[in-house]
Design a protein that fits this description.
With 279 residues, the chain is α/β, with parallel strands linked by helices. The chain has helices spanning 25-33, 67-81, 96-106, 135-141, 158-167, 216-227, 258-278, and strands at 5-10, 54-60, 85-89, 111-115, 147-153, 170-173, 188-194, 240-247.
Length: 279
């Protein structure tokens, strides 16, 4: 059986508003993923090291400036054309807009589940409409997703709350995180996992740490319950996990590599879910 998943790194942090370093994340996540300290089996029983599960498409360095959007789009489109579902290792969160733009041309109506401390719905941030603080504003105004569910939010500003209301975003804040454990999803799903959605105790290696966040276990349980075939949270049509990204790890801020390990764990479970739902 040919692979259905493509692992691809987007080594880019040119739209980071505070610190650089996220461009170094793909290499750090791969090192943790392949470390002999663990194995390549997901909790859902998928041997990710078996032939025909995934192909590693390497890393892309898309350059700088506005042309980056089209360069990333072209990379993801190329994978989709080969029949591969992309799992993207960022990079800052700005990479999600061009990635979703490519995925949405093939899969509609698309549901996005975003794990994050921040809503990333600014119309512009510090004069920049392509900032890593803005990708979901660009996605929703372009009509690329019919549904956006944000999980773990704990920094909503007045502007971003208004943007969420404008676009009909479903916000599951940390204060009401219990609702995420019964999240029902239908049809094609894309998961965007910003590492700062986890509490800094579990992932200190981020540029914008925000206390009071998810444990790694909570995040994995939410993913499993919402996406595992036969799980209680699955909606009318079994969801297909057609793409995902892992963003905002900053290895320069990590402590003993534990944030990269958390990323690798989430990567394993996302890949396992992609394999099971797309098989």
């Amino acid at each position: 059986m040919p692979p259905t998943i493509a692992l691809v790194g987007i080594a880019f942090d040119g739209q980071s508003s505070y610190l650089r370093g996220a461009a170094e994340a793909p290499a750090a996540i791969r090192a943790a993923f392949h470390s002999a300290s663990s194995n390549l089996w997901s909790e859902t029983g998928v041997d990710l090291g078996a032939d025909g599960v995934f192909v590693d498409a390497g890393d892309e360095e898309p350059g700088e400036g506005p042309a980056v959007v089209d360069a990333i789009d072209a990379t993801i489109t190329g994978l989709l054309t080969r029949g591969l579902a992309p799992l993207v290792l960022g990079g800052d969160h700005s990479i999600t807009f061009p990635t979703v733009r490519a995925v949405a041309r093939r899969h509609q109506p698309l549901t996005i589940v975003q794990f994050d401390a921040h809503q990333d719905l600014y119309d512009e941030f510090e004069g920049n409409r392509l900032s890593h603080a803005c990708p979901f504003a660009r996605i929703m105004e372009a009509g690329l997703a019919s549904r956006l569910v944000q999980v773990g939010i704990r920094t909503g500003t007045e502007h971003q709350r208004a943007q969420a209301a404008r676009f009909g975003v479903e916000v599951i804040a940390m204060r009401g995180i219990e609702a995420a454990f019964s999240l029902a999803l239908d049809g094609p799903v894309y998961v965007s996992f910003d590492l700062d959605g986890l509490d800094p105790a579990y992932a200190p290696g981020v540029s914008h740490p925000e206390g009071g966040g998810l444990t790694t276990r909570q995040a994995l349980d939410i993913l499993h319950r919402a996406l595992l075939p036969g799980a209680a949270g699955v909606g009318a049509k079994p969801p297909l996990l057609v793409g995902a990204d892992l963003v905002e790890l900053n290895p320069r801020r990590d402590v003993a590599g534990i944030s990269a390990v958390a990323c690798a764990k989430v990567q394993k479970e996302l890949m396992g879910l992609m394999h099971l739902t797309l098989a």
